[in-house]
Every structure is written in C-alpha cells, then in structure tokens.
Amino acid sequence: MLFLAALLPLMAQARNNNPQDTLVVNKPTKVTVITSDSAQTIYIQGKEGNPKYAYRNSIQLVDSNYVSTSTIDNDFNFSFGPFGRKQTKPQKYPSSETTMNFFVGFNAAPGMPQAADLHPFSSWEFWWLIADCGIYPWNSHHKFTIGFGLDWRNYRIKGDTRFTKLDNGTIGLGTYPEGASPQFSRLKVLSLTVPIRYHFYPSRYFGFSLGPVINLNTYSSLKTRWKIDGTKVKDTSKNAHVKPVTVDLMATVDCLGCNFYFKYSPCDLIKNGYGLQFKTLSFGIFL
After folding, report:
1. Contact in structure between 66 and 48 (CB atoms under 8 Å)
2. Rounded CA gap, 34 and 27, in Å?
3. CA 57, CA 248: separation in Å to the nearest integer?
4. CA distance 52 to 74
5. 201 near 143, Cβ under 8 Å?
6. % of residues, the chain, pLDDT over 90
7. Is the entire prediction scored with pTM above 0.70?
8. Which residues have a Cβ under 8 Å from the Cβ of 107 and sit 6 or more positions away?
9. Sign of the torsion formed by the C-alpha atoms of 78, 84, 86 and 89
C-alpha cells in the first residue's frame, strides 16, 4: 500500500508530461472563454493555415473532481448563442442583383360604358420586364428595384358595340352595319415601362412588392372584324390618341413559389378631348 501511495504522484507527473495532453494552436482566429461557478468552456476558432479549424474544451467540477471533455473539428459548424458560426460565408450588404421577368395577365377597363361589354379574360396583357436592377441595402429582407420592359395590352369588346374613330380623331363606341355578324373589336397599346418598387421578404416562402410603373405609350391602334353576307370585313385605325405617359400602381405577391401581380392606373388612357374615357386594371401571374 505504501508502494502504491508513493507511485501515484509519479503517475500524475507522467500524465502531465504526456504530449497528448498539450495542445498548441498557432495564431488562432478567435478564442472565447466562458466561465461559470461550476464549469469553464474554451472555444478556439481558426488557426494558421486552417480557417475552419475548431476546438472546444469543457471543464466541469463534479464532487470536487474536474471532468474535462474536448472536441476538435476541422469543419466547425456548431452554434452557441452569439459565439456560433454559420457554415456558409455571410452575405455582405449592400448587395445588388439584376433579374428578368415575364408577366401574363388580363385587362379590365373601369369606367368604360357598360355598352362596350369588355371581356377581361379575352383582353390579354404580355409584359416582358427585360431588366430589373435591385439592391439589398441592409439585409436579404428588403430590396429596392428599378427596371425596364416592354408591355403589350389588348382591350377587347364583343357584342353589338365596337370601337370607332371619327374623322376628327375622336375615339368612341359605335354599332356594326345592319346585317353584320360581329366578331370582335379591340384597342391595342404598346408601351415602354419603368417599374420602381420596394420588396419585402419576411421569409423564404412569402414576399411582396409595391410601387409605381411608368408607362411610355409609344403605339396604339384599333381593329374591328365582322362578317356580312359571308364576306369578312376588317376596319383598322392607327393612333388611338392614348396619353403618351400613364402611371400604374403595382403590387406583387410571392407565396410558396407562386407569383401574382396586380396593376391599376388612376389615369384615363385616352387623351382629354378625344372622347372615350376609362381607367386601366390588369392582373395575372409572372415568372
């Protein structure tokens, strides 16, 4: 027994001299020491030549004895409150991106006389947003964009009423010749568009945007088709006297990967003094 008692200090000294209990980390990136009444934890993140290196050592006092646990991980990915580190490199802000979208929807015309019998689901809109340049100023939840695109809108009416253009340029509604079999009458508008929007993404599954769209209306025309006595008749007119600039109020919603848009213009489409007056509204989906 006396021999064993004399041997124990030598064993302890040999244990302390064992190189396996000595850890040397050259030029650590970060060292964090957390101390409480019953435990102390040391975190080492990164070292010379290996920025992903990680070491953790925990010492706990249990029944007057120290219990030490250590882990080494060359691909450190644990999280411990503010001391954790993400697996991927964090995005720096502000950051920017440029996207392209294609919108397909339907048109309505609030304020147009009921006699026009405009059919929204026969009145298409095709909008190619060629470039939408955005910036994330603070984080990935907020974005501001300004874009440029081409928009084609078609307002189509059926029934016994059609679009007309008088000799003085006035745009109005008229009837078909007696005995005619109407097919359709439509007003077409081509525009260069400049949308300016704010986007908010509270989560990866939901987001929305709001803002104005400036329409530079570069071309417009009227077309009407009907049959009479078995003969097809087409009546066309260029320049429907639409306003050169109109503004839409736009909203988009992105929910679980499904994208919807809505636009409403408080501006009358036709110039003042040229007859028919109505607002424009469109809605649909986009990619």
Report:
1. no
2. 20
3. 61
4. 5
5. yes
6. 61
7. no
8. 120, 123, 124, 125, 153, 154, 155, 280, 281, 282
9. negative
Handedness of CA 161, 162, 165, 170 (dihedral sign): positive
> Which tens digits make up the pLDDT trace of 56-84?
787 776 655 555 666 555 544 444 434 44
Burial of residue 173 (CB within 10 Å: 0-12, 13-18, 19+) is: middle
pLDDT at 63: 58
User: Which residue reads 């650590």 in tokens?
Assistant: 28
Q: Are 147 and 100 in contact (CB under 8 A)?
A: no
Q: Are 267 and 243 in contact (CB under 8 A)?
A: yes
Tell me: the pLDDT tens digits for 146-194?
A: 999 999 999 999 889 999 999 999 999 999 999 999 999 999 999 999 9
